[in-house]
């Protein structure tokens, strides 16, 4: 048996101790955050880029993403404390505020700045005209949710009353809307990407209009958390926003092909060509916010859309449930 000198054994033991201590320190220094996202969509590409490119990790954050299908479920998860931060429509924070919550939900970083749904028609013949929706069956989104309100806003803009000029279906759960349309329900449906492109590839119809283009700029999807969490974790929220802003800048400066490649692990069952076309659709219409700041003009547009849908008790001042301090600080770090 070969003899190992005592000093060699000592060095090995020392190295093991150093590695162990380093690992412990890394775990202690990393802050863990659980995000509840309203759906898994290419619409949220910057979020996945921040994880995949290590921008959150650079900030000392370990981020876990949970998909909690539907705005109501996502907000319920946030209020219950099962997630730390929610990625959901800003309208949900307004609903909580309107109910007089003692611990209001605060919007601190914007991810998308347009609606993310597309009008998908089952009939692919001829050119599209909004008048074709009259007397049709429209498979809509959840009442009071941002997709539905943005859809109604666009329909009204083109002289179509969604309550009287067509048959509006709103009793299908958010997670089952695509499958309901695939099974034959509705002449038209609102779809996010990549589902819209998948249905086009499958020959189920075609995208005929963009609600994002129709509705203009607004804080459509926002990272938000409870005021109590914000008060206790200011440093974590700042680091999170820093990582997000770096991802937003990365998305803004890279091609759809490059973005699709980076986010592909989050969409393992999606054809790479579909990912590229989906990202490209959102980039072309400017859906991805280039910074996390929620500005007043966009906020007021959101209130206008909610008011038109009859879902706003009274207009909520931007500063009541929006804290741009983290976003503004993050933009200084570029």
TrEMBL record:
Similarity remark: Belongs to the bacterial solute-binding protein SsuA/TauA family.
Transmembrane portions of the chain: none
The name this protein goes by in its record: NitT/TauT family transport system substrate-binding protein
Origin superkingdom: Bacteria
Pfam families, sorted: NMT1_2
Assigned keywords, A-Z: Signal
SUPFAM superfamilies: Periplasmic binding protein-like II
Localization terms from the record: Periplasm
PROSITE patterns, alphabetized: PROKAR_LIPOPROTEIN (PS51257)
């Amino acid at each position: 048996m070969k003899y190992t000198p005592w000093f060699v054994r000592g060095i090995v033991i020392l190295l093991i101790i150093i590695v162990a201590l380093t690992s412990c320190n890394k775990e202690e220094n990393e802050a863990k955050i659980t995000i509840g996202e309203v759906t898994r969509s290419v619409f949220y590409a910057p979020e996945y880029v921040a994880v995949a490119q290590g921008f959150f990790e650079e900030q000392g954050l370990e981020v876990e993403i949970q998909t909690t299908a539907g705005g109501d479920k996502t907000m319920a998860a946030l209020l219950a404390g099962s997630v730390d931060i929610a990625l959901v429509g800003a309208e949900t924070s307004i609903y909580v505020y309107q109910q007089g919550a003692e611990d209001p939900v605060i919007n601190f970083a914007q991810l998308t700045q347009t609606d993310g749904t597309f009008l998908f028609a089952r009939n692919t013949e001829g050119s599209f005209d909004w008048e074709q929706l009259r007397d049709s069956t429209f498979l809509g989104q959840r009442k009071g949710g941002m997709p539905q309100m943005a859809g109604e806003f666009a329909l009204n803009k083109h002289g179509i009353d969604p309550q009287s000029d067509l048959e509006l279906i709103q009793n299908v759960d958010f997670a089952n809307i695509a499958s309901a349309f695939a099974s034959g329900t509705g002449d038209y449906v609102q779809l996010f990407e990549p589902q819209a492109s998948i249905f086009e590839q499958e020959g189920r119809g075609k995208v005929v209009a963009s609600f994002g283009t129709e509705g203009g700029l607004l804080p459509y999807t926002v990272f938000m958390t409870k005021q109590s969490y914000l008060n206790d974790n200011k440093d974590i929220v700042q680091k999170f926003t820093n990582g997000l802003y770096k991802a937003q800048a990365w998305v803004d400066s890279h091609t759809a092909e490059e973005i699709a490649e980076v986010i592909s692990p989050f969409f393992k069952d999606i054809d790479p060509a579909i990912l590229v076309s989906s990202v490209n659709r959102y980039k072309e219409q400017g859906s991805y916010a280039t910074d996390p700041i929620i500005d007043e003009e966009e906020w007021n547009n959101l209130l206008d859309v909610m008011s038109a849908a009859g879902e706003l008790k009274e207009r909520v001042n931007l500063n009541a449930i929006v804290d741009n301090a983290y976003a503004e600080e993050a933009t200084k770090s570029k």
